[in-house]
């Protein structure tokens, strides 16, 4: 992005002044938690709707969310950049079909600059409590530094992939070497010539492993379950295309539409079992056979579950990296972490200088990242103790004027997360405009509407590949799916296109 340097300076300047604006005396119209894609996108659309009394609380000193935190070698998005960006803020200058994390972060930073969002952001404000005041119809946020903020509407936009997750392996604190998590990468540590163990073979791991294979003296990868890995159609963007997109924006919109429809068709393979599912599995097996000639290694890397049950991965260099002379794949289960490395169940201790945990994030299916207290002091973690539920993934009964981004059952399995996010943001804007236009103290979804919606969602989920028997981060320990949306992105957008007031209780101020 050409504006990246300027936007970083603006972000840094805003960070240094945020302490001076620690508490807002006058309640904001909208209080947003998180300055990642969701929070910033919400602020942009609210601003475009004429709503400017906004406060964004960000726990870090810079914007970006998961793309700020995930800076590990090889970090990139597995959705094409022209689809993994906002339709209302296209970028004609993506360098590749699938851009890396640094370029995505630059896009986010430039977006802050273009739309003048610095004025809304309060950096270094880690929210520790969010509570609703029934008497005044306000949400109050308390932060780690002792500041307090309030707003008529609260938007939880902290994102589901924000807190690094470590596996429950005995002895994880005993290792005396270097420990690195994919979401908190140590760029000062030199992996060259080191004995490195990687725990995890998910979306982050398959990007990290090829880069570590270039540096490590010995690389050992511990695999619990093989994944379906698809080829990645990644190409450098030619200059003529960038020029065309700048001069004829409709051409970029057409490409985005084509990418959207192509990904929509993938739902027939990923979400439900169909003839397209078998075709997708054939493509995955062909990719594996083409890149892995050793039959025993190929057998170890072959999934034994239906495609779509776990997250599908895309990579052209993961399989080749595992076959480098300095690389080794271990499929024996891990018994414990020792002082010197990793012990597997057959009694072998693998000794390392460094262990990399590419084990993703703590994705809570029942809790919340901080206490959220609704009407009459009810606690959202208690209401979600048996599995998170919401109405249209965005409102929760008993929590008036609270909106969620990427709430329960809004996860995409086949299309861009930002497509779903735009639908949620537009819904939030409708809700806020309704509250202001009708001068409402509370816009509260009805229990009946939430129960009926979730009964339908769970019935539909029962017929999906996600619920077909494998264990994944989509499910709770007892198999409840509070994560994924069982349908096309088009269906999700349609359900979010209208704010159906009959499903809400409206309390005037």
TrEMBL record:
Top-rank taxon: Bacteria
Organism from which the protein derives: Marinobacter mobilis
Keywords: FAD, Flavoprotein, Oxidoreductase
InterPro entries: FAD-bind_Monooxygenase_sf, FAD/NAD-bd_sf, Flavin_mOase-like
Molecular function, one GO term: flavin adenine dinucleotide binding
Protein name: Predicted flavoprotein CzcO associated with the cation diffusion facilitator CzcD
């Amino acid at each position: 992005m050409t504006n990246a340097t300027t936007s970083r300076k603006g972000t840094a300047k805003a960070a240094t002044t945020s302490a001076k604006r620690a508490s807002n005396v006058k309640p904001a119209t909208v209080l947003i938690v998180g300055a990642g894609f969701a929070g910033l996108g919400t602020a942009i659309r609210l601003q475009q709707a004429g709503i400017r009394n906004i406060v964004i609380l960000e726990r870090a000193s810079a914007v970006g969310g998961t793309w700020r935190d995930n800076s590990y070698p090889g970090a990139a998005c597995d959705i094409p950049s022209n689809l993994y960006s906002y339709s209302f803020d296209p970028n004609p200058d993506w360098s590749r079909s699938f851009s890396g994390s640094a370029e995505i972060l630059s896009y986010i930073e430039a977006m802050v600059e273009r739309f003048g969002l610095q004025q809304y952001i309060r950096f270094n404000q880690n929210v520790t409590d969010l509570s609703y005041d029934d008497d005044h119809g306000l949400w109050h946020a308390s932060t780690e530094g002792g500041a307090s903020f309030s707003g008529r509407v609260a938007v939880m936009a902290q994102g589901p992939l924000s807190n690094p997750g470590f596996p429950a392996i005995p002895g994880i604190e005993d290792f005396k070497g270097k420990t690195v998590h994919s979401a908190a990468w140590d760029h000062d540590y030199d992996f060259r010539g080191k004995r490195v163990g990687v725990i995890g073979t998910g979306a982050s791991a398959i990007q990290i492993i090829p880069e570590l294979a270039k540096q490590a003296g010995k690389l050992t990868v511990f695999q619990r379950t093989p994944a379906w890995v698809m080829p990645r159609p990644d190409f450098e963007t030619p200059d003529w295309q960038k020029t065309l997109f700048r001069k004829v924006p409709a051409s970029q919109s057409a490409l985005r539409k084509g990418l959207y429809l192509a990904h929509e068709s993938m739902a027939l393979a990923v979400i439900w079992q169909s003839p397209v599912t078998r075709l997708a599995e054939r493509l995955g097996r062909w990719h594996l056979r083409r890149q892995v000639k050793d039959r025993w290694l190929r057998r170890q890397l072959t999934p034994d579950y239906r495609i779509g049950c776990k997250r599908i991965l895309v990579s052209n260099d993961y399989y080749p990296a595992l076959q480098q002379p300095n690389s080794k794949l271990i499929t024996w289960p891990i018994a414990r972490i020792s002082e010197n490395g990793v012990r597997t169940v057959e009694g072998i201790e693998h000794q390392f200088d460094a262990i990399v945990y590419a084990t993703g994030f703590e994705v809570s299916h029942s809790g919340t990242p901080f206490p959220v207290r609704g009407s009459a002091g009810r606690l959202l973690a208690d209401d979600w103790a048996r599995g998170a539920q919401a109405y249209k993934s965005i409102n929760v009964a008993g929590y008036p004027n609270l909106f969620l981004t990427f709430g329960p059952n809004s996860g995409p399995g086949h299309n861009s997360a930002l497509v779903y996010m735009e639908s949620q943001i537009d819904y939030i804007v409708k809700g806020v405009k309704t509250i202001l236009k009708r001068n409402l103290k509370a816009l509260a979804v009805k229990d009946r509407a939430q129960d009926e919606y979730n009964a339908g969602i769970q019935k539909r989920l029962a017929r999906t590949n996600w619920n077909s028997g494998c264990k994944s981060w989509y499910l709770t320990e007892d198999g409840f799916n509070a994560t994924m949306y069982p349908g096309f992105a088009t269906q999700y957008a349609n359900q979010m296109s209208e704010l159906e007031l009959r499903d809400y209780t409206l309390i005037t101020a």
